[in-house]
Amino acid sequence: MNNFFHIAIDGPVAAGKGTVSRIIAERLNFLYIDTGAMYRVAALLTIKNNLKFDNEDALVALLEKSEIKMNNPVGLEKDGRLTTVIVNDKDVSWKIRTEEVGRGASIVGQISEVRKILVKKQQEIAQSKNVVMEGRDITYKVLPDANLKIYLTGKDFVRANRRHMQLQSRGVDISFNQVYVDLVSRDKIDMERTTDPLKIVDDAWVIDTSDLSIEQVVNLIVFKVNVMQEALSAN
Ligand code: DC
């Protein structure tokens, strides 16, 4: 293990991983890395280039020559986004947030060559920094030595309701039923795929956010990290 503090968070769709991770990162002055955004970029590239989702070779080639940059929103970028995502010099931060791209991300996430490329990028980013990284395989694949591993979850109905409200506040016209069906089907793909599926590792701290506010979840985690950091510095 290196000297940097790594927080790894996994969990299903709309468990609150993004919002919680962003606030924790700000409070602790860590870098926030949204790995789902990278799979969403892979899906967006597929759609924009009119590729079929099973055309693995073309997607891998495209991904390898694409430059993906992710950073904290600054200035005018602070428009409610959690992270700024630039692909080949184009800001795609909002384009990757549609339900269509989310579904596509889950599909391209099944391709092991795509995962290999993205996992390598994620590990490189975390190498020399304190990070909060969230996704589906962070606790055991991307950062297996993370200081703190968390599995953030919540009841299907509560998560679907949160996602529905989020989409509505952005002016997206979609029924609750559609959001619920999409969420359940995406979780199923993510948990059942052969390469690096979403799962709960033995040493993960499982937090069910169904009855907790964002603030409560953040406070729980920040408190734990402070205690762990004090113990580390006393050694
Ligand atoms: O976290 P999100 O909903 O933005 O992620 C979109 C999809 O990307 C998710 O359904 C599965 C895939 N994904 C993945 O396979 N591995 C990750 N580490 C992160 C996301």
Description:
This protein has 235 residues and is α/β, with parallel strands linked by helices. It has a single domain, classed as P-loop containing nucleotide triphosphate hydrolases (Rossmann fold), CATH 3.40.50.300. Helix content is 50%, strand content 14%. The chain binds 2'-deoxycytidine-5'-monophosphate. The site of 2'-deoxycytidine-5'-monophosphate has 14 residues, from α2, α4 and α8.
Write the layout of secondary structure elements.
Elements: E1 6-10, H1 17-28, E2 31-34, H2 35-48, H3 56-65, E3 68-71, E4 84-87, E5 90-91, H4 99-108, H5 112-126, E6 131-135, H6 138-142, E7 148-153, H7 156-169, H8 176-192, E8 205-208, H9 214-234
Parallel strand pairs: 1-6, 1-7, 2-6, 7-8
Antiparallel strand pairs: 3-4, 4-5
Bound molecules: 2'-deoxycytidine-5'-monophosphate (DC).
